[in-house]
Amino acid sequence: MRELLARADSRELGEWMAFAQLEPFGEEREDLRTGIVASVFANAHRDPKKQKRPFTPKDFTVDFEGAWVRARQPKWLQLLNLVETLNAGFGGRDVRKRDA
Questions:
Q1: What is the DSSP string of 7-40?
Q2: Which of 26, 46, 47, 58 has its CA 20 to 30 A from that of 14?
Q3: Predicted confidence band at 55 (pLDDT cuts at 50, 70, 90)?
Q4: What is the mean pLDDT of residues 28-51?
């Protein structure tokens, strides 16, 4: 982490944060891929009489940091979060009025 912070400026880190929101990568994404494969396999062998509801990838992954909650956010809120991340990464200020 120290080497990363020594080599990358805030702009580059902001770009990586924005990219990660648009094209997620890393362990969380790999867990989702594994969950997809597991759910397909489980549904192919599921007895609909015993298990009426089809399995989903969520049934086979651990939600360590609320990823499923973020995925259910409305698209406009996801985009707003992205704009806020980019703004902070590029050194911008948030000039919106906040209600107290």
A1: H--HHHHHHHHHHHHHS--SHHHHHHHHHHHHHH
A2: 58
A3: very high
A4: 91
Distance CA 31, CA 40 (A): 14
Q: What is the C-alpha to C-alpha distance for residues 60 and 22, in angstroms, rounded to an integer?
A: 23
Q: For residues 38 and 36, give the distance between their C-alpha atoms in angstroms, rounded to a whole number.
A: 5
Asked whether the beta carbons of 11 and 89 are under 8 A apart, the reply is yes
Token pair recorded at residue 73: 């956010």
Closest by alpha carbon to 22, among 75, 70, 82?
82
- Whole-angstrom distance, CA of residue 35 vs CA of residue 19: 23
HSE of 78 in the Cβ direction (CA atoms, 13 Å)? 15
Amino acid at site 78:
Q
